[in-house]
Structures are given as C-alpha cells and as structure tokens.
Description:
homodimer; mainly alpha; DNA-binding
Amino acid sequence: xxxxxxxxxxxxxxxxxxxxxxxxxxxxxxxxxxxxxxxxxxxxxxxxxxxxxxxxxxxxxxxxxxxxxxxxxxxxxxxxxxxxxxxxxxxxxxxxxxxxxxxxxxxxxxxxxxxxxxxxxxxxxxxxxxxxxxxxxxxxxxxxxxxxxxxxxxxxxxxxxxxxxxxxxxxxxxxxxxxxxxxxxxxxxxxxxxxxxxxxxxxxxxxxxxxxxxxxxxxxxxxxxxxx
Amino acid sequence: xxxxxxxxxxxxxxxxxxxxxxxxxxxxxxxxxxxxxxxxxxxxxxxxxxxxxxxxxxxxxxxxxxxxxxxxxxxxxxxxxxxxxxxxxxxxxxxxxxxxxxxxxxxxxxxxxxxxxxxxxxxxxxxxxxxxxxxxxxxxxxxxxxxxxxxxxxxxxxxxxxxxxxxxxxxxxxxxxxxxxxxxxxxxxxxxxxxxxxxxxxxxxxxxxxxxxxxxxxxxxxxxxxxx
DNA sequence: CAGCAGACTAAACGCTCGTTCAGCCTCCTG
DNA sequence: CAGGAGGCTGAACGAGCGTTTAGTCTGCTG
Lengths: 228, 228
C-alpha cells in the first residue's frame, strides 16, 4: 500500500462503495466486479474480505441500519422538535426531513433506506416496523401536548402520517421532475412544508393566508418551471 | 395446437405471463426462460414472437399503459365521484382506490404500475406526470365545486395529494404487515378511509366523531414483536 | 535471517443469461 | 399432391455472473 488517500481500511472502502452502488441500483443490480472496480481492487479481494456477495449485502444492511439507529439516537436526545420554531404538527411531517438535515448532502444513506423499504426483505420489513412504532410514539406525544388528535383509530392515523411522510421520500425523483425542485432540498422544503402544514392544520378547505388566488397548472411541469 | 384452454393466442399468453412476472419481480428480476416456462412454451418461441427481451418489456409496458388509459376513460365518463356518497374530499383520496375497484381482484396491473413508478424509466416518469396532471385537474375541480381550497401553491398541493394517495399504493405490503389488513382491500379501506377523510376535512386537530379515546398502539402490530 | 500471516491479484471454474440456429410439424394454398 | 409459411422445439453459442484456486508481495515476529 504505497499511498492511502483516506484513513479507511480497504475493507471499509469496499463496504462503502458497495453501499453506494446498492443504494443506486439495488442489491441485484450490482455485480461484485463493479464493486471491486469502484473500490479499486480485484473481484477476488471482495470475496476475501466478505465471504460472499450475500454476506456483503447483509453486512452493508447492518451497517446502514446501525448508522440509522445512531442518527435516531442523536435526534431524540437533541429533542424531537428542536430547531423548528413552528407549531406542533411540524414534527409529524419532519421525520424524513429532520433525518435528512443530519446527513451530508451527497450521502447514499437515504437512497439505501428507500431501497430497503421497497425491497421485500426482512431488513426492509423490520425498518418499516421500526418507523411505524416511532410514528405511533410521535402521534402519542403530539396528542399529549394537545397539538394533534389521536383520531378514531390512532394506529391507522399513525400509519397514514408515516406513509405520507415517506411518500415524498420514495417519489423524490418523480417530484423533482414534475415540480422542478428537489422536494427534500432547502428550496423544496420551503415550498412543500407550508402546504403540508396547512393541510395538517386545517384540512383541505382551510384558506391560504397569503392572497394569491392562482390556479393549479396542469401543463408545463418541465424542468425549473418558475411557477408561483 | 391440440387444445387451447382459453381464446388467447400463444403470443398473448406469453405477454400476459411476462406482465405478471415483471409486476412481481421487476424487469431485471425475470428471465426469458421463466416467462417461457410460465407460458408453457420454449424460450426460443418467446424470442420468435417478440424480437428480444427488451422489446417484450416495451410491448408489455405499452399494453399496461393502454389498459390504464382505457380504465381512466371509463372512470371519467362514469363521472369522477360516482358511487361515493361522501363529501367532496373523498374523490381526492380515491384515485388509486377508485382505480382498484374497477380491476379484477387478482390483477397484476396495480403491481406493474407500482413497479413502473419506481423503475427510473421514461415509462415510469411519463406515468407519474400523467397522474400529476390528473391530480391538478382533480384539485381544480374540487376547488370549483367549493369542496377544497387550492392552497397557497396549487401545483404543490396537487403533488402532495397525489403522492399521499400513492404512498398507500407503494407501501401496501408494508402496511398490511403492520396493520394486519390490506389497506386496499374492502376491510382496509373501511379502516383507512375515515381516518384520511378526517384529516383532509379538518386537519390533525379535529376531534373524532365516535367517543373512543383509546391510545395509539405501538406494540403488537401482527406477528412477532418489536426489536431494539 | 527464516518463516509465517495476511493483503492482494490473475486466471479459471461452473453456471445462467439472452440470443441464434437448424429443423420439425401443421396448416393453407395452388 | 407439391410446396411454402409460420408456430414451435432443442441444442448450442458467447458473454457475464459468483466463486475458487494458486500464487505473489509485504510486513511482522522469533
């Protein structure tokens, strides 16, 4: 090893490149040879460090879930609604948003978690269950604080709040193409947040505070459409 | 051809089996040999009828989208909110629900559309754009009827309503595992619908009409209990 | 200095993939 | 009845896959 540009071991480099590629193309869409090339090593070395491709997949899964849990720990010790000056319901819509704010911008972690959630694996089901429990606790907290009602069926309401939050996450690219702005970027959140907040605060019939009676515009959603 | 159990041509049988398998496992998760076996023919015949696997994929895509458009035509001529006696906002939450009611129960079409939406292909992007335009028109109609407000940013509000509707669709299996009932079955809709309607009608703070102040239930969603 | 352990590579194995090819059988037509 | 067209099969090809193996290099240790 003549020159090591970073302080990660070769094993960690392979793991990180596998993470990045898995996140982008899914577990089955990536070959050991691609991972090896991305990490700058030979395919044999990947198998030398991790016993097999399936074992590498499991190890990356565990690593991602561990980082995720660690991040969750930070967020709860910080205080769930810290940093947001708005009223209660904000927290309900910020599970993924708060999560993203604590990650480097180019991190492959969100995409990996998205892939896991959609992957029909035990890891994905466990992750969703984890998020569901969190959503239940969050709704319970909001209800105790008087910021929200538990509704007729609290378990269902918590599930709805969760999947609605995740939908922006899962359809991020599609929304970007249609709205002209990444919904999870700062600019996107500035546009999406108030609208979602308005619905959660007063339902679909509540009137918008700012007097701008512009119509919805079905056509011309193309890139960077500078609409209202 | 000694005995043909149905009136479809062999070509149509291959196409339908490809549709079913693609819907379940994605385009890259299915081999020509699997499709051939499912259709009861040899792999060579699949290539004989469709020039290549990629061409078969495109043809199945087109077929699915054509059926989808046909169904959309039926729904709009039937009248958008027909069959639903509830108030206005019902229609906003029933794009996928109304859609599903017009399909045979075991139809692979929903799963195929889900896969397309998540597939990062031109077909998927076109489908989402189509749904977005529909959502914009639907919000516009609701607003004209006084059933909903266009909000501060109608384009964003329409997008949010769409992705929230789609989220139940995309996470159907995960919700089934957690709630113990398929959210898109009749029983599931009976549980989910009122809750969503309540949020859309009055926001998160509106009190439920039935006096059942039970707590949200984080534990015991279905089979085996929660982890760390 | 001898030798062992571990990081690492290059080559090759067996397998499955999409695709091709030669040929059979069964109609339909002249 | 001759003959061509098309549905259809089984075998085979080349490429790429995950994995195995043999062997090289390097640094540590006795």
